[in-house]
Structure formats: structure tokens, C-alpha cells
Amino acid sequence: MTKGMAIPTMTQQVEQLVIAQLKQQTGKAPASVTIVFYGSSLAIKLYEVLSPTELAMLRCPEGAERVQEVQHRFFSNTFSVLREEIKRIMGLHIEEGSTEIQATTGTVIHTLGTTNIEHKIMSAQMVSWDSWSGS
């Protein structure tokens, strides 16, 4: 690492992991990725990841269901890798996962349930997740 180079935060490391997995699976990266914590869940939001065809399919229930299936399949295929890497990076044990697509925006949200996110937040003593280095 070069002097003066910033060390990625935990959320940045997870974002980079998701982008790499998506590129490997589909050949395309999202415009951006956001990691959001709420309750005992971690949500991974993928922006502008759907193709124009997939966006058009969201306009009808059958098409939306098909796009949901494809996104869920991607998520299922990468879930074990994501679970292990998130555990390594953040120390969170991931128990379950689900996929949702916001039909109006095309944003894909993968939600991961965790067993110890509250403990991690309490241990941070009010330090934001983004300020952690992941080490």
C-alpha cells in the first residue's frame, strides 16, 4: 500500500466484494452499492444493476416475478461467499438472506439477517461503521 493511501472501511470492503461478485456472475457492475444497517439486518442496495430489458419487464407482474427470480438466483449463488467474507470483514454471522426489487427505481436490495449486529454496534461505542478499518 502506498503512503497516504486510505484504508477501505468495512462497508467499502463489502461494497467492493459485492461489485466483484456481480461482475464475476454477470459481467456487469452496478452504478453504485450502498450498505445499510437496520435492526438485526444488513441491506445491500444495488443501483442501476438491471438491464434495460429487465427494467421493462418490471412493468408487468409476470416480468417482475421473472426478474425477481433471476436476482434471487444471483444472490443464492453468491450467498455463501458473501456470508463468509462479511464474517471475515465485519465479524457478523449471517443467518439468512432475501432479495427485493423496487419496481419504480429498479434498485435491487439483498437483505441479510445477522445474529450479532446489535453487539457490534454496542461494541463500537458510538463509532460509525464507516470509520472502522475492518482490521
Features:
135 residues, alpha+beta, 4 helices, 23% strand, globular, disordered C terminus
Structural class: alpha+beta
Percent in strands: 15-25%
Q: If helices are DSSP runs of H or I spanning 4 or more residues, what is the number of helices?
A: 4
Strand order of the largest sheet: 1-2-4-3
Distance between the termini: 15 Å
Shape category: globular
Mean pLDDT metric = 78
What's the total count of β strands?
Answer: 4
For the largest beta-sheet, the strand count, sense and barrel status come to: 4 strands, antiparallel
> Which sequence of SSEs, written as H and E, runs from N to C?
HEEHHEEH
Share of helical residues: 40-55%
Low-confidence stretches: 117-135
Rg is 16 Å
Verbal overview:
The structure is a single chain. The protein has 4 helices and 4 strands. Mean pLDDT is 78; it is low at 117-135. It has a 4-stranded antiparallel β-sheet with strand order 1-2-4-3, covered by helices on one side. By secondary structure, the chain is of the alpha+beta class. Helix 1 (10-26) crosses helix 3. Helices cover 44% and strands 23% of the residues. It has helices at residues 10-26, 52-57, 61-90, 117-123; strands at 32-38, 41-47, 94-102, 107-114.
